[in-house]
Amino acid sequence: MTKHSSLLTRLLSPVSKDTFVSNYMMRKPLIIQGEKQRFDGILNLQQFFDLIRTLRHESGVLSLRPHPPDLIRLQKSDGYINLPYVVDAYSKGCSVHVTDFERISRPVKTFQSELEKDIKKMGFAIDHGAGCSVFLTPHHSQALTPHSDPSDLFILQIGGRKRWKFYGEAPFFGAPGVSAPEDFPCTLEVTLNPGDMAYIPRGFVHHAMTDDDFSLAITIGVRLLTWFGVVEKLIPSLENDLTFMTPLTPLEIDNRFLTEEGSKKLFYLLSNLGTLPALQESLYTTPVDLEEKPVVDFSFVNRVNELSMKTLLNVKHPISLIEQAEFVQLQGPHGEMKGPLKMKRVFEWLADQKYHFLVSDIVDMSDAETSVAFAKQLILKGLLSFADEV
Ligand SMILES: [Fe+2]
User: Fold this and answer.
1) What does 321-369 look like in DSSP terms, one character per residue?
2) Domain residue limits, the chain
3) What is the pLDDT of residue 276?
4) Ligand 1 center to residue 247 CA distance, Å?
5) d(CA 364, ligand 1 centre) in Å
6) From ligand 1's centre to the CA of 354, what distance in Å?
7) Are domains 7-222 and 307-389 of this chain identical in fold?
8) pLDDT band at 296; cut points 50, 70, 90
9) What is the per-residue pLDDT across 364-374, written as a single tens digit (0 to 9) for each?
10) Residue 32 main-chain phi, psi, to 5 deg
11) pTM
């Protein structure tokens, strides 16, 4: 393994990605002990508190556990989180839990994106990222009772230490509320120290607690697209399909049990699920994230400022022209732009461009200044890109 290895490879080392997929992924927890400093640069305690200050109370992403916060005191008069109150609650034994942390921390966002990218590179589709949570837990405390989560979790121990207990031998899919460890034996008990990572498959019952040290940990949730997920997405559209909305006949059901005839019919219906037009449409329009989400890169902003009549541009295809009574609109996969009807010709011209072109080639512009300004707008709105960008 080198420093150029993928993030997932480094995160799992010494376990290989192949072993991870065959033995652990969606199967059982995996604990990896890592060098103490390996998560340095992602988050520390000071940064955690600094970032909390940027949160607005109404965003609802900050909660205190196990005791709910006093909502009046949690908010300052300007609407932002009242940090002294949070610190006070923490000192009295409350865990501070912040969800969607990737929205406020660029390093956390980058880590999450890299991890998702590596998982996709292994050929797995991600249904949706479940977001990153950060837990700050004081000593001798427990934020949550035993439970299972609907996503696979990668837990990065950033500071302090935390003791984890896992129950049962197999995931309990579809039972995220399960909370009775007495029903299942504790099968694994482990303490995470800074630099350690725990992978918890979806549906595995777990809980965590601190002893005489505090704990700062990041939880990155990843929800892989499963066949159950596909069927789950298809079900709402079954209601619009006449084949499925046909009542069962006495030949097909008897005393709430499917007859042989009924079983055959169900098998026939299910075997044709993927070919029903309404269902295909449903799957197509469902926001299944099979595409890589690029890490936001703002370097292009500098290039936009240097744009000239000689800059080569591309249209980000597919781009289409929508014509309404009072305006025209360009609609692309990454953005859109509305304009008055007099811009119809230039919008049509842009929608037709299959190859790169110069800013000076853009039709219907009154002068160079207008061309450059218009091209900048199109880039910033996600409809054009620089021709040398991949
Ligand atoms: Fe959990």
Assistant:
1) EEE-SSEEEEE-SS-EEEEEGGGHHHHHHHHH--S-EEGGG-TT-SSHH
2) 7-222, 227-285, 307-389
3) 63
4) 41
5) 58
6) 49
7) no
8) very low
9) 888 898 899 89
10) -120, 125
11) 0.68
Q: Check if the beta carbon of residue 216 is closer than 8 Å to that of residue 45.
A: yes
CATH fold label, 307-389: Outer Surface Protein A; domain 3 (3.90.930)
Check pLDDT > 60 for residue 298: no
Decide if pLDDT at 294 tops 50. no
Give me ligand 1 centre to Cα 207, in Å: 7
For residue 385, report the distance from its CA to the centre of ligand 1, in Å. Answer: 41
Q: Is domain 7-222 annotated with CATH 3.40.50.2000?
A: no
Lowest-pLDDT range of 28-32, 230-234, 257-261, 276-280 = 276-280
Query: Would you put residue 57 in left (φ > 0), alpha (ψ -120 to 50) or beta?
Result: alpha
Q: How confident is the model at residue 390, as a pLDDT?
A: 42
Distance 316 CA to ligand 1 centre (A): 40
Separation of CA 146 and ligand 1 centre (Å): 8
